[in-house]
Amino acid sequence: MNKALVIAGTILADVIKTIPVYPDAGKLVQISSVTRAVGGAVPNTAIDIATLDPSFPVRVFGRVGNDEYGAFVTGRMKEAGLDTSAVIVSETAPTSFTDVMSVKGGERTFFTLAGANDELDIADFDFDRLAPSHLHLGYLLLLGALDKPDAGYGSRAARLLAEATSRGIPTSIDLISEPGDRYTRVVVPALPYVDYLIVNEIEAARLSGKELPHGQPDAETLRGLAEALLSLGVRKKVILHCPALGVCLDKSGEFTALPSLSLPAGYIVGTTGAGDAFCAASLYALLHGRSDREVLSLASCAAAANLSAADSVSGMRPLDEVRKLETLYQRR
User: Per-residue DSSP letters for 37-65?
Assistant: First the structure.
């Protein structure tokens, strides 16, 4: 099998149900519409990259159930031109999914089933068959088996990433934002085996044990977080993003900050998947050897493209169109 960027981890379906109001306990409301979309680190990141550049080789990997949702998500990835041949179909767990209860013009409430994502484990990763030129793993903290403790490495995800680095395979990870102390137990042990850490400011703060100031963090705040994460073992670069800006700190000490695009009123349709779009474009630029500023530029434009659609992937556009956003809109 030819080498490719392998994006591994969470695969799920988002089932979006529009309701007039969120009911009190024991009450009933009618659902006015139901739509489905892909969700999770694997479909979101991989489809974004395939949309940016259909010629770039991307292989997706994870577990789905032998069910309608599994067929839907896998089919959607195939339609995007992705290599899904390595995806495992579980006979013991359903495809992971999230029911999104969406009040029109208001808040969303989420109910998720871990399903087949919780089964993905080290033994599933046949590196000779997967043939990764780079391994991207996400989302840690949503991968039940890989999030478990490991006596030798701290977490099973850390053991997996250590195996990849021992084979000379560059690695990167993405996380979810959650309260609690699992960052220290699950993610920190993996950092010495991560070449590129691409996360948001909330995740960076919880990983580093630092407090975020009130309001939007500035470049110096993000630099402090990135320095703390490099000190925890990240091998090459820490890339952080928040609504106002993105930053990159290289192991050499080179620091780059770039404000986000200033988008016009009414442009933003939804924010679902914006972090994945930023991550996807960062990976694409990194793997093409671009400068840190070019990485942040493309990533911020990709995130802006994502914001133009309600779901996690429909806002992404081909590379040339995404790059044009930097000339259409000023930076903050």
Answer: EEESHHHHHHHHHHHH-TTS-EEEE-EEE
What pLDDT does 257 receive? 98
Burial of 133 (0-12, 13-18, 19+ CB in 10 A): middle
* Stated pTM of the model: 0.94
Tell me which H or E stretch contains 303.
Answer: helix 292-306
Chain segment 94-114, per-residue pLDDT in tens: 999 999 898 876 777 889 999
| Residue among 157, 215, 197, 178 nearest 286 (CA) | 197
What pLDDT sits at residue 141? Answer: 96
Q: From start to end of the chain, where are the E strands?
A: 4-9, 12-19, 33-39, 58-61, 63-65, 88-90, 96-103, 108-113, 132-140, 149-150, 154-155, 171-175, 196-200, 237-241, 245-250, 255-259
Q: In which residue ranges of the chain is pLDDT below 70? A: 105
d(CA 81, CA 105): 33
| CA-closest candidate to residue 298, choices 261, 244, 251, 265 | 261
Backbone angles phi, psi at 276, to 5 degrees: -65, -40
Phi and psi torsions of 159, nearest 5°: -60, -45
Segment (H or E) for 74:
helix 68-79
Q: Which amino acid is at 280?
A: A
Task: List C-alpha distances in Å: 129 to 133, 228, 256.
Answer: 12, 36, 37
> Nearest CA to 100 among 20, 40, 21, 34?
34
Closest CA to 165 of 197, 132, 142: 132
Edge-to-edge strands, sheet with 196-200: 58-61, 4-9, 132-140, 171-175, 196-200, 237-241, 245-250, 255-259
On the question of a cis peptide bond just before residue 193, with omega within 30 degrees of 0, the verdict is no
**CA dist 115 → 93, 143, 151, 173, 313 (Å):** 5, 10, 25, 21, 22
CA distances from 6 to 57, 83, 242, 254 (A): 9, 9, 26, 28
